[in-house]
Write a structure and sequence with these properties.
The structure holds three protein chains of three kinds.
Chain A: H1 2-7, H2 14-26, E1 54-59, H3 65-72, H4 74-80, E2 83-88, H5 92-102, E3 108-111, H6 114-121, H7 131-140, H8 142-148, E4 150-151, E5 154-155, E6 158-164, E7 167-170, H9 172-178, H10 186-199, E8 204-206, H11 218-231, H12 234-241, H13 250-263, H14 278-281, H15 284-288, H16 290-293, E9 296-300, E10 322-325, E11 335-346, H17 351-360, H18 363-371, H19 393-403, E12 407-411, H20 419-435, H21 439-448
Parallel strand pairs in A: 1-2, 1-3, 8-9, 11-12
Antiparallel strand pairs in A: 3-11, 4-5, 6-11, 7-9, 7-10
Chain B: H1 34-57, H2 62-67, H3 82-88, H4 94-125, H5 131-140, H6 147-160, H7 167-191, H8 195-203, H9 208-236, H10 240-246, H11 255-261, H12 270-290, H13 292-297
Chain C: H1 3-30, H2 36-66, H3 80-87, H4 89-120, H5 126-138, H6 141-152, H7 164-171, H8 186-212, H9 216-224, H10 229-240, H11 242-258, H12 261-267, H13 276-286, H14 290-303, H15 305-320
The chains are: A alpha/beta, B mainly alpha, C mainly alpha.
């Protein structure tokens, strides 16, 4: 396949590459502004002169995504004189509570789960959002998103970045070659799956992977959430998340059965990776690669999967891979969109912290961040985000879906449920389900584990 | 714990015949048996094969790693330095993390050895009330998972001691976590020193401090080195303690934090992780090889000739 | 902070420590009266005890206290947490797995380490041979997990294998296996192997040194009596290094009880492979159930009691000689 030649290194060229490598290694990249115009300070004057002040921020994004974040802060730093100290970590969900409990929280943290936000608010160390932030949230994000940053009626955090999960990855070039069309309804999707299954005896229509180290199973929870939104609708979804209906409610059972129609169907899965059970041990990163190597055709996964494709893959509507919106099942329930995002939370209320927090909730910041992310892989549900600032087609697609007036957005359920379930039995339950447990056993198990 | 085998010493008191083991007479015995050689070879191969796989993987392109097993490199060498290049050419240079690792590790090895040596000596050769009970308590503390100590210690450092964010918090923590095993190990080695030596020194008028520093420590230097290498390994490869007490910023974070980050936000960049894991293995390996002679002569009777 | 400043801090720390404890020791050695022995013992032992009291004993007591309280530690719940552990079927599997680990790892690692140490003792290239077995100890747990991922990885038979073990199976004509999906407790064995792989180096190092400490005149005498090979091993070598074997078994046993990284990164504790240490971590740090997490930690303390008791008996026996 052409891709191998792009990234390959023949023995004969090794010497030249070695030299090149050493040269490149010698010049390490310095912090760049990456496309952000730091000279335009008109909208930042309101924050005053913050020279000499510093704000510590704690994000779950590390190299290489952190470069874009640091670049996105440059304009604020240049215009107000403040210094933003960035710390990224992959262990934010574990480390932030430790820091808060021990008394050394950051000034601002980007929290990826509303459930975690609620837990931290319970410690009393989180500062309520300033009025300006509240106004911005109403203006740019709408009431769905506002609700996720709100705990017990008080708004604590404005949304930061977002991602869309209701996507199915596919290969446009393969579809074109085989004459397949992107399905617009769920029925069409099922028909397409059947057609692929009969057309291609060596591959399968779908590949999926729940494997994710300590988080194994989360992909299964996404599937259930996406389908439940489509079969039962957003209100039922909300009741389910808040445990106002039990986890083994018949409506959930119907949704799970529908997921099983695809994931537990040996004719549909698991492209190039084994049988149905192999979904449990296939890592989600590996599962999607099947779309590229031809062992499967469809992979339901979030927009952030774009980062998993090997270097050189063209992610575009006419490229090697792209995604389409997972169609609705019941047109009456609108265009449900499952997604996630992070929330900008403050643990201090010094003027400079409040200023920065406010700035982060504006459309100006959303556009700054988009401009600072030339490789793509970031999007926000901020309505003031201009699509042309987003560089990658998949980000544009995600933003379009998020900003669609018909879209009904719901935040990932497992991120909102108490962690004993959302990061525990829900994951485990789905993994056990794909390995063989029945729908009823699975739902009963998770229901039984809900903390009293 | 006393030695069950008396140790051969070359001192006039003990052994006037001067029967010291001659190297020549200690013929190379064990591996003369071909079965023994084979068995050793099999074990060594089994043990090294997995690591070899990782080494080769770190030189393969991302796509190749996904598509085929690493043994294919022998018939189709598709190697690249890309992975290493990407790690080394990143935003924060590895050098800073490396320095941090060194600065975190060395005191975390030296301090526990200091404290544990004197405590182990007391448990081995001093008499005081409650000695045995205390010793059992200390060695039992090995079971306490360090996670239960993270938050209480962090609170202490932040509120009472104002050490938050400095290296002191991680040095002190590593010292604390190392003490139970250190005292246990060093105590056992110290107990193996024959009482005659201690008595001889006491007869000469040496107090406990003198005995410890002039007699014992030189004799168990190999044991100290052995514990030192284990502690070095443990601290060098530690992620959790550093992350908790000193944070993850490049100014202070050790190499392990950086390597863990290489996994990428979704934990999957195997091609980078393989290379990163090897880079961070280099130093412990060098330290191990350098201290090999202490290992081999180890805790050896020969060392007592002093 | 510049590199120079960091190294400066480091040397200051070591120097400071040496100074402080040096002074304590010097002062203590001045004591000449009847209480001298006790004062000196105090000076020797108290610094370490102080560190341990603050850093391990206090948190341990806190943990025991928390184990009798609710998830957020706000109310007293008696032995509820312990009852949960004993009755929840999930946790019963966890207990069983933990026992498997605790029995297999020390025995296997020590046996292999000892065997290897004996095999390469006084051979040519001994140092190199030993460093091969020691190598896994130098690799962090993260590294180890990746290494073994490339051993256990599963692809269905007929597809290109990425995992070494499956490649061997397929070449020999068997079907590729998805090891972690094997029925528990068989899948746990594959995780146990990783820990044994790492710990054998520790056992080998200590035992090799102990073997070298056996006086040659004893070996000579035994050889003159006609003992060789296995007989030599059983009659002379093994009894002579018994204390070291006990140290090794104990240390590895306790270490195994505490380790959860392997389980966590390779299976996430799923497929019925979880162990007590992993559950403790989950409950305390992910599910924020401090009470149940603490109870699980106390369970770890309890599980180590047989090991401690065994050691105490050996101590007493040795002292009595």
């Amino acid at each position: 396949m052409a891709l191998r030649q792009i990234s390959g290194c023949r023995w004969g060229v090794l010497g030249a590459v070695l030299t090149l490598a050493l040269t490149l290694a010698a010049c390490s990249q310095s912090d760049s502004t990456q496309g952000v115009d730091t000279s335009d300070c008109s909208d930042l004057k309101q924050y005053g002169d913050l020279k000499g002040k510093s704000i510590s921020v704690y994000y779950p994004n590390v190299d290489p995504e952190d470069k874009a974040y640091k670049a996105s802060f440059k304009r604020f730093e240049a215009c107000t004189g403040a210094k933003v100290k960035y710390e990224g970590t992959l262990e934010l969900s574990a480390q932030l509570p430790v820091r808060v409990r021990a008394g050394t929280p950051p000034d601002i943290a980007s929290i990826p789960q509303p459930g975690l936000l609620a837990t931290l608010v319970g410690t009393g160390k989180v500062k309520p959002a300033p009025a300006a932030v509240s106004a911005n949230v109403d203006k740019f994000f709408g009431k769905d998103w506002r609700a996720y940053g709100t705990v017990n009626g008080t708004l604590y955090a404005a949304p930061g970045g977002a991602n869309v999960k209701s996507l199915v990855w596919y290969s446009p070039s393969v579809f074109k070659a085989k004459g397949y069309l992107v399905p617009q309804t769920y029925d069409e999707l099922v028909k397409l799956s059947d057609k692929i299954a009969s057309d291609d005896s060596k591959a399968k229509p779908w590949c999926a992977g729940f494997g994710s180290g300590e988080a194994t199973g989360w992909v299964g929870t996404d599937w259930l959430e996406d389908i439940l939104l489509r079969t039962a609708g957003p209100e039922v979804y909300d009741h389910w998340v808040k445990h106002e209906i039990p986890f083994n409610d018949p409506q959930i059972a119907t949704a799970l059965a529908k997921v099983g129609d695809i994931l537990k169907n040996p004719k549909y899965v698991n492209g190039g990776r084994g049988d149905v059970k192999s979904i449990a041990t296939t890592t989600f990163q590996d599962a999607g690669q099947g779309v590229l190597d031809g062992s499967c055709y469809l992979h339901r996964q979030a927009s952030f999967f774009a980062a998993q494709w090997p270097k050189g893959t063209k992610v575009a509507e006419d490229g090697d891979v792209f995604a389409f919106y997972l169609p609705a099942i019941d047109a009456a329930k609108g265009k449900p969109t499952l997604g996630a995002g992070d929330f900008i939370t403050a643990f201090a209320d010094r003027p400079e912290v409040k200023a920065f927090q406010t700035y982060l909730s504006t459309d100006a910041y959303a556009n700054d961040k988009a401009k600072a992310t030339p490789e793509g892989g970031w999007v926000s549900s901020n309505k003031g985000l201009k699509l042309e600032n987003l560089k990658s087609p998949i980000d544009k697609l995600s933003a379009q879906i998020l900003q669609d007036p018909k879209a009904v957005f719901r935040f990932d359920a497992s991120d909102q449920m108490p962690s004993a379930v959302g990061a525990g039995t829900f994951w485990k339950g789905m993994t056990n389900w794909i390995v063989g447990k029945s729908d009823k056993e699975t739902l009963d198990y998770i229901e039984g584990s809900w903390p009293k | 714990m006393t030695a069950t085998a008396p140790i051969l010493i070359e001192t006039p008191i003990r052994d006037p015949l001067n029967r010291r083991p001659r190297a020549a007479s200690l013929a190379k015995t064990s591996l003369t048996s071909p079965w023994a050689s084979l068995a050793a070879l099999v074990i060594a191969t089994l043990w090294t094969l997995p690591t070899l796989g990782l080494l080769i993987t770190s030189f393969r392109p991302q796509l190749a790693i996904q598509r085929s097993g690493w043994w294919n490199v022998f018939n189709d060498p598709d190697l690249t330095l890309d992975n290493y290049r990407e790690i080394l050419g990143g935003d924060s240079s590895l050098a800073e993390y490396f320095v941090n690792s060194v600065v975190i590790t060395i005191p975390s090895v030296v301090l526990p050895i200091l404290l544990a040596s004197i405590a182990a000596y007391a448990f081995a050769w001093m008499k005081f009330r409650g000695r045995d009970t205390l010793f059992v308590a200390v060695f039992t503390l090995q079971i306490v998972p360090l996670q239960v100590a993270l938050i209480p210690l962090l609170k202490l450092y932040v509120n009472q001691l104002h050490l938050s964010g400095t290296y002191w918090s991680v040095w002190l923590s590593h010292t604390i976590f190392a003490l139970p095993l250190a005292i246990f190990l060093l105590h056992n080695f110290m107990k193996q020193i024959p009482i005659e030596l201690i008595d001889a020194a006491r007869v000469d008028g040496a107090g406990h401090v003198r005995i410890l520093f002039k007699v014992l420590l030189p004799l168990i230097t190999p044991a100290l080195a052995a514990f030192g290498i284990f502690q070095f390994l443990w601290v060098w490869n530690d992620l959790l303690v550093s992350l908790t007490f000193v944070g993850g910023t490049p100014e202070v974070a050790p190499l392990t934090v950086r390597v863990a980050e290489l996994a990428g936000s979704r934990g999957s960049a195997w091609y980078l992780l393989s290379a990163g894991a090897f880079l961070s293995m280099v130093v412990p390996l060098i330290v191990f090889l350098a201290l090999q002679r202490y290992f081999v002569r180890g805790l050896l009777a020969g060392g007592l000739k002093g | 902070m510049s590199t120079g400043a960091k190294f400066g801090q480091m040397f200051v720390a070591i120097g400071l420590f040496t100074l402080v404890f040096g002074s304590i020791l010097l002062l203590a050695s001045r004591a000449k009266d009847r209480a001298a022995e006790r004062i000196q013992a105090g000076a020797f032992v108290l610094p370490a005890l102080l560190f341990l009291a603050v850093g391990l004993i206090y948190p341990a007591i806190l943990t025991v206290y928390e184990s009798f309280r609710s998830a957020d530690s706000s109310s007293f719940v008696g032995i509820d947490n312990y009852l949960t552990i004993l009755t929840q079927p999930d946790l019963q599997v966890v207990l069983r797995n933990t026992v498997i680990w605790m029995v297999l790892v020390p025995l296997a690692a020590t046996a292999i380490g000892l065997l290897y140490a004996v095999l390469v003792d006084r051979a040519r290239g001994e140092a190199f041979a030993k460093s091969l077995i020691f190598l896994p100890m130098a690799i962090s747990f993260v590294g180890a997990s990746i290494i073994w991922k490339f051993v256990y990885e599963y692809k269905p038979t007929g597809f290109a294998q990425i995992g070494l073990l499956n490649e061997i199976l397929v070449t020999l004509g068997f079907d590729a296996q998805n090891f972690f999906l094997l029925p528990s407790p068989w899948n746990t064995l594959f995780l146990v192997v990783v820990m044994v792989w790492i710990q054998a180096g520790f056992a080998m190092t200590i035992l090799s040194a102990a073997i070298k400490a056996i006086p040659s005149d004893i070996i000579e005498a035994a050889r003159l009596d006609g003992a060789t090979g296995v007989k030599m091993f059983r009659r002379i070598t093994l009894p002579s290094i018994r204390p070291a074997v006990i140290v090794v078994l104990t240390t590895i046993g306790i270490g195994t009880l505490k380790v959860f990284d392997i389980v966590r990164t390779m299976t996430g504790g799923q497929f019925e492979t979880s162990v007590v240490a992993n559950e403790f971590y989950n409950q305390s740090f992910i599910y924020n159930n401090t009470g149940l997490g603490a109870a699980l930690a106390v369970l770890l303390f309890i599980l180590v009691i047989p090991v401690v008791a065994y050691n105490v008996r050996q101590l007493r026996k040795a002292d009595a000689r």
